[in-house]
Amino acid sequence: MSKQALTYDDIQLIPSYSTVSSRKNIQLNTFLTKRYQLCVPLIASCMDTVCESEMAIALAESGGAGCIHRFMRIEEQAKQVTHTVQALRKETTLHHWQQSFEHLTTHPVPIPIVAATGANGDYAERALALTAAGANIILIDVAHGHHENVKHAIEKLKSILPGHVDIIAGNIASATAAKDLENWGADGLRVGVGGGSLCTTRLKTGFGVPNVTCLQDILAVTGLPVIADGGIRTSGDIAKALALGASSVMLGSLIAGTKEAPGQIIEKSNGLFKRYRGAASLETKMAHNQEQRNVEGESTIIPFKGGVKFVVEGLLDGIRSALSYGGADHLKVFRPEYVTVTHAGQAEARPHLIY
Ligand code: XMP
Fold first, then answer.
1. Ligand 1 atom index nearest CA of 171
2. 281 lines ligand 1 (CB under 6 A)
3. Is the CB–ligand 1 distance for residue 45 below 6 Å?
4. Among protein residues, the one whose CA lies closest to atom 24 of ligand 1
5. Residue 297 C-alpha to ligand 1 middle, in angstroms?
6. Does any ligand 1 atom lie closer than 6 A to the CB of residue 49?
7. 298 CA to centre of ligand 1 in angstroms
């Protein structure tokens, strides 16, 4: 039986009574996996034009995390992990993290070091090298995460990796998938299929579930931390995902144009740009000598945005403001009600004086 599915633009959150005296008092700490926490609910996507060590370091310094992509040789990815771990020994970063959790614990909170593997080929060897280099979270980066290969990969990684390593698995878009991945041993879920800014999966295959309904279906059946992934364009979208109960959001297009994203700045007569390409785009497949089949993504250039720290600060301002409208001083109690909106409501939600 079919049901109507909604995405971020289809809903608006309803302001709630608030006793939050200042946005400064709003805490954004959250769980990324069962055992690892973030100071702020943002994680950089494991794409080759989004996250290598420079991005992972910058995000961690801001209180989030970056997932180092897997489209490189094992030794190179392990080196990226080592570099990230070494940079994060900085006193100021450790102090920032500890401060974010001092209202909860006096114990040191470990900074999550996240790196991606696939679910076949060299994935086990890769995961061992990444954890030996210092990764404490392995993300199984697969387009269709509700798959036998992912079941085997989780079971295998759980049996060979050190006990302190958590596993994030995905991507998924159904309640059944969430329950299965939880039963297979996942410690966190990456949720969203076909909703990313460069995705062509829904066009090419007809599969995927609009993001709001996708999150609701999954959050109704799992207690695992959920990462809302794909289609996040504004801090308003982030607020909606968090209001529905997602623990964090994964960012691609929002941070791909920054200095810390891999790739050169491209100078054109109309400004500065950087490349952003889908993990399953033809360009990515060609760049990594992969078979040029099953293309399910686009590639493009996007305006250069400067340092990621400033982008993140802007997003965090928006998220703190959202919690204030929702009468919440931390994410766990941020559960405002929402309405579904018409096209007229969507038009009203954007600046509409300027023609
Ligand atoms: P945003 O909207 O933040 O989305 O740019 C980032 C997410 O998009 C997914 N992704 C893809 N999905 N084909 C797809 O169908 C692709 O080539 C592709 N590349 C990335 C991924 O989940 C990422 O985090």
1. 22
2. yes
3. yes
4. 45
5. 8
6. no
7. 9
How crowded is the C-beta side of 172, counted as CA atoms within 13 Å?
30
The CATH number assigned to the domain holding 161 equals 3.20.20.70
Alpha carbon of 313 to ligand 1 centroid (Å): 23
Structural domains in the chain (count)? 1
Structure tokens of 235? 């801090």
Q: Is 36 a member of any domain?
A: yes
Using the structure block, give the residue that is written with the tokens 């829904």.
202
Q: What is the pLDDT along the chain (355 residues), one digit of tens a residue?
A: 689 999 999 999 999 999 998 888 899 999 999 999 999 999 999 999 999 999 999 999 999 999 999 999 999 999 999 999 999 999 999 998 999 998 888 888 999 999 999 999 999 999 999 999 999 999 999 999 999 999 999 999 999 999 999 999 999 999 999 999 999 999 999 999 999 999 999 999 999 999 999 999 999 999 999 999 999 999 999 999 999 999 999 999 999 999 999 999 999 999 999 999 999 999 999 999 888 889 999 999 999 999 999 999 999 999 999 999 999 999 999 999 999 999 999 999 999 887 6
**18 lies in a domain?**
yes
Relative to the CA of 296, which ligand 1 atom is closest? 13
Q: Is residue 351 part of a domain?
A: no
User: Is 39 considered catalytic here?
Assistant: no
201 lines ligand 1 (CB under 6 A): yes
Domain of 22?
A: 8-265+309-345
CA distances from 330 to 57, 224, 244, 249 (A): 25, 18, 14, 16
Q: Is this prediction's pTM over 0.90? A: yes
What lies within 8 Å, CB to CB, of 310 at 6+ separation is none
Q: Is 295 within a domain? A: no
Q: Kindly state the tokens that stand for 317.
A: 């301002």
Q: Is the CB of 194 under 6 A from ligand 1?
A: yes
DSSP of 195-234: -STTB-HHHHHS----HHHHHHHHHTT--S-EEEES---S
Could you give the CA distance from residue 99 to residue 105 in angstroms, rounded to a whole number? Answer: 10
